[in-house]
Every structure is written in C-alpha cells, then in structure tokens.
Amino acid sequence: MAHFGLDERIMLPNRRNDILTVGELLVDMISTDYDADHESFQYQKFFGGSPSNIALNARKLGVRTLVAASVGEDGFGKFLIDRLRNAGIGTDCVQAVDVSTSLVVVNKSQSTPIPIFYRGADYHLGYNAQLEEALFNSNIVHFSCWPISKVPARHTIERVVESAKKHGAIIGFDPNYHPMIWQRGEDGVAYVKSMIAKADIVKPSEDDAERLFGQDTPARQIEKFLKLGAKLVILTLGKDGAIVSNGKETISFGTRATEVVDTTGAGDAFWSGFYAAVVKGYTIRESLSLGFAVSAYKLRFTGAIVDLPELEAIKDMYGLQEEWI
Amino acid sequence: MAHFGLDERIMLPNRRNDILTVGELLVDMISTDYDADHESFQYQKFFGGSPSNIALNARKLGVRTLVAASVGEDGFGKFLIDRLRNAGIGTDCVQAVDVSTSLVVVNKSQSTPIPIFYRGADYHLGYNAQLEEALFNSNIVHFSCWPISKVPARHTIERVVESAKKHGAIIGFDPNYHPMIWQRGEDGVAYVKSMIAKADIVKPSEDDAERLFGQDTPARQIEKFLKLGAKLVILTLGKDGAIVSNGKETISFGTRATEVVDTTGAGDAFWSGFYAAVVKGYTIRESLSLGFAVSAYKLRFTGAIVDLPELEAIKDMYGLQEEWI
C-alpha cells in the first residue's frame, strides 16, 4: 500500500475505472432567495450528493469515474440518473429502490444554512454483484459520512472497505460527521473514528475535527487523525488554506482563491482535482496543489457543480508548471 | 348518535370548538411548470395536508377549528405553525418532534400528478393531554388515511376514535386509501375498511372506492361502505357530481362548478363547507349543497387554499335560499 510520500507518485495498476464514489446521490432543493430559516417561497432543484458531485467533477477533469448509489423509482431518481448518463458516467451501480429519492432542502444563506434532510432511498444502498465488480476494477474508492450514518448502507460500506483493502484500492473518506444526519440514539463519533482508522486519505474541515475531537489546535487535530490510522490527513482551514500531513512530512497550503462567489461544493471540487491528479501521475504534493486550484476555480461560480475544464487547463490557468506550492 | 336523516339538523352540544382535524400538516412543494414526471427546475412551497386545509377553510367560512398534527423542529414546521396562527387557529395540539417536517413534492400536471412523498414528522403524532382535551371539547373529529397508514400515528387515531365515540363527537373519515403512502408489506385495504366501520361520515371518490372494493357501479359501491358501518356515504363522481346515501334515502347532486381552473383541494373545500353548514344548523341536505357550492367556488381559483368568504356569502352567491338541491 502507498505510504503517501509527498514527492512520490502512486503507482496505480491498470484497471478499467479510476475513481468509484459510493454513497449519496440526491436532489438538493435550494431556495432562490437568501433567507434565515426557510421563509422562501421559491426553490430550485439541483443534482446533489457530495461523492456524486466528486465523480461528476473528476469526469470533467478527464478521468474515469463510476457512482454507486441508491435512488427511488420516481421522477427525481430518473433526473439524477439522466444527469450521470449525460456526463458519460456509467450507471450500472445505481440501484433503484421502492423508497423516495433522498432530498435535502437548503436555504440560501449569508451565514450558515440550516438544511432539512429527507433521507429516503440513499441509505438503502446494498452490496451487490455490480458494486463488487466496480470495486475490483477501480483504483480509488471514496465515501462520506452519509452512508455510514444509517443501516443498511453502513453494512454495505463495511463490505466495500473490506473489498477495497483486499484489492489494493486507495480509500478516501470524508469525515464530515454531523449528528443531524446520524441514526438517532447512537454514538456517531465513535463509529466515524473506527472508519478513519480504515481510510487512507481523510479531508476534515476544522468543524469536522471539532465535532469529532473537541476544540484543539490544527496541528494537534491532525495528530489525532494520524494516530487513529489515516495515512494522509488534509485539514482544511477555510480562507486560511489547509495543512496536510502524512505523519512524517507536514506542509501548509495558502488558499489560491482570488474571487469567492459561492463556497458550495468547494470541498468536492478539491477532492476531484486531487484524485484526478493522482490518477494522472502527479506527485502527492502536486496533486494537492492541483486540488486546491480546482477548488479556487469553482469558488468563482455559483452552484455545487460548475463547468470545469480539463485538469491541465486549470494547471496552466493557475501557473502550476513552475511553482508547486 | 345522529342517524343523518337528510332533512334533519344535527343537534350539537355546546362545546368550545366545532371541528378538530387530526393528521397531516405538511409542506406541498409544487412545480411551477406543467411536467409529466418532475423534470421541472422550479418549485414553490405551500401550506398543505388535507385535514389542515379543511381546518383552515372552515375557519374562513366562520366556524371554530383546531388542528392536531406533528411537525419537525425546523423552518418548515415553523412556517406551518405560523400559517395556522395567522388564520386564528389554536396550535396547542401541534406537536414538534425531532424528525423533518413531512413534505410532498408535486408536479403540476394536466393529467394525474405523480407525487413524491417524504413522510417525516407527520406520522409521529402522539396521543397526549392537549389532544385529549381538544377532543373532549370538539363536536366533529376528522381524519384521512394518512395518519392510519403508519404507526405510531395509527395508534393515536385509534385512541382518538375511541374517545370521540365516548364523548359523542361526529367522526368524519376520508377513505383516500393509496398503497403509495402505506407502510410497506401490510394490507392497508383491510385496515381502512375496519376504520370505515367506526366512522359516521365518509367521502370516497370513485377511485378510492375502486382501490378498496374493486370496480363496480356507484350504487353498489355505496352499499359496501354502508354495509361496513358508515352512516352517511358521499361518493364523489368528479364532473358528474356526487351520490349521497344514509342507507334509507339516496340523492344525487349535479356539480355546481361553472368554471374549473384548478381541481387541487376541491374535496377539502367540500368537507369544510359541509362541516361548517352542519355546525351552523343547516340540515344534512342543505349542508351537502353548501359543501358542493364551496367546492365549486374553490374550483375557480388556483391552489389548495383559496381566500374563501363566510359560508353565508357563498350561499347567496349560488342562490341556495330558494332551491336546495
């Protein structure tokens, strides 16, 4: 298994698919007006779900992606599947179940939005032959806290992680723990920690770290993730950039954002840029830089999904051939 | 207990409240464009839930109403409670629970819309002291198939029906059975029939009757409801009006609608007009006529909730002083 030396390239075997995201594929219903708590009359429907956004972005950046997810047998499920197809992403691993497609209602807010969650089809994701086949043929597997927050999807992720380890795939995990999506009456924090132990790469925000470990300095938070077993920890600090450590080397990244129009999906943009770069043979350090460049590019536009160019175009745009940090 | 003679008035005891509706209070998210299956981009948020619409309408028609329902501790729940308050309806029986406020996404359609149901807070309605007090002080209790379609709300309705019978309240039940809202793997039809047996007044549509009993003539469908134990059966036939029977007398009503702009909420408008008239001392026959007049009035406007005048104004508008059928 890769040890994520910052100036090394990860040698990936020759497989049919680069990145497989497993988890939420859902509709975001976002208010057209800014409001504090869902006073809005008008809402607009968007493709959503963090891992699905990552797959869509990474595909645009020029790598091969697959989405494993569960949607309802309804108009919203059809809308999401159509969007994946139009982006050239295979949908063999999208399962249709007899439960409404999951929905998140979001108030557009100048402070922190308060989403209302409608968990439906998403957490009914099962482990089946199509998912296993996709796993065997993928080099990177990615998921967030959504599918592990409820059974039966949690059991599916447990089998996904087991299979991914057996087949030498890199496991990326977004420890975006929030009690609001967690199964009631259960200690989500302990479970998320057990999952960090199994992951290769984690990208917590400072808020994520605080919800998991309490308040502490960035350096000490990173230590806690490493101690649990994560091999590469990317702690994002909002406008202050990020700190990354593999336990031996630690580097800081300033933000590359020059213009911030909308922060929605900036984290997903990072993941997709970082993964795409790893797949394309850049070093970890270069891949991190490219991830932050893609994120900065996304920040200039509204919405979680923006019209990304190929990774190399963004690399040129941010002058990344000369200077890598 | 009243036997619903068509030319009789129901003598109601002197109680603090006229109509208590128990059940769904939720947000309807309706597409702004006509579409076949949720292709729409834009949606608008409305106050919804059939019994809650009935309470709001009946209040406008000039009688006292209360709503017993369960909403989430979120912006949508707050929006619904505010709407009730603004209409002058007490909200002591609206329970707030740690589950998202129920939501129905509806595509505006020229044929039959295909709603997507997000059942959340609504079916967590519990039987508590406030609900019992409201029951003891109400003359009419109304509910639909929603709360009986899932536990724990079903158990609450069972206690409501028991208490209502003990206290001599009239029980109105909308047998709007649909497998899509029913708890999976359970025979909803059998349960709905057991509830019809306990109700005084039921208002099935022809589609409801068919889902419960299979296809048959209107006269024979009415017989089946009466045989189960309902005392007054109002079978609606869309543009062909309605047939009403108490087992001894049967009458037909032609539609009073002259202009049909939007059929949404026409049934709820009927219920509210009928109940308001019963409360105001009209005979059953007169109350039915007034119900159909209120429904015809509603059909002229868009939306489930329209700005109804007092019942007497609608009575005059439709010339109901001379001719009662």
TrEMBL record, chains A, B:
Residues 18-310 form the Carbohydrate kinase PfkB domain. InterPro entries: PfkB_Carbo_kinase, PfkB_dom, Ribo/fructo_kinase, Ribokinase-like. The keyword Transferase applies. Coiled coil: none annotated. This is Sugar kinase. Keywords: ATP-binding, Kinase, Nucleotide-binding, Transferase. The lineage of its organism: Bacteria, Bacillati, Bacillota, Bacilli, Bacillales. It comes from Paenibacillus ehimensis. It holds the Pfam family PfkB.
